[in-house]
TrEMBL record:
Signal peptide: none annotated. InterPro entries: Galactosyl_T (IPR003859), Galactosyl_T_N (IPR027995), Nucleotide-diphossugar_trans (IPR029044). The lineage of its organism: Eukaryota, Metazoa, Spiralia, Lophotrochozoa, Mollusca. GO terms for biological process: carbohydrate metabolic process. Residues 25-100 form the Galactosyltransferase N-terminal domain. It holds the Pfam family Glyco_transf_7N. GO terms for molecular function: galactosyltransferase activity. This is Beta-1,4-galactosyltransferase 1. GO terms for cellular component: Golgi apparatus.
């Protein structure tokens, strides 16, 4: 089966992919275990990578999440973020960056992360 390119349906140059953005998106405020989140999102590959199986996404997205001693918050974020991004038919990767005290901070407060890490996928 040939994959289609996911694009807005108004563009006539490429066939459109059905993106289900109508209706409410369920949001959760309670944390579940990482195993349970993995079972709820079986198409997410190890390492937090997902690509739609029915079409080829037009965009590839890298999401960098700074993490520091907030496992419950991380579980809530992953439980909500995976379904939202899958609904948009995005080819994405989620990268959890554990913040250490020794991380060099820029004036903006963001840690220095080599750009090669984000572009490797």
């Amino acid at each position: 089966m040939r994959k289609r390119l996911c694009i807005p349906s108004g563009d006539v140059d490429f066939p459109s992919c059905d993106v289900d953005l109508d209706g409410r998106l369920a949001t959760y405020r309670d944390a579940r275990s990482f195993e349970e989140i993995g079972r709820a999102n079986p198409e997410v590959r190890p390492g937090g990578r997902y690509a739609p199986s029915t079409c080829t996404s037009r965009h590839r997205v890298a999401i960098v999440v700074p993490y520091r001693n907030r496992e419950e918050h991380l579980k809530i974020l992953m439980r909500n973020l995976h379904p939202m991004l899958q609904r948009q038919q995005l080819d994405y990767g989620i990268y959890i960056i554990d913040q250490y005290v020794s991380v060099v901070l820029r004036p903006s407060g963001s840690g220095v992360i080599p750009k090669e890490q984000g572009f490797r996928y």
